[in-house]
Amino acid sequence: MAYITTETVAKIRSTLKAEFGKGYKFSVRRGSNGSSVTVSLMASPLFDDGVTMVVNQYYIAEHHKDHPERIEVLTKIDKIIREVGDYWDKSDIMTDYFHTSFYYNIEVGQWNKPHIKVV
Question: Under DSSP, is residue 3 helix (H, G, I), strand (E, B) or coil?
Answer without folding.
Answer: coil
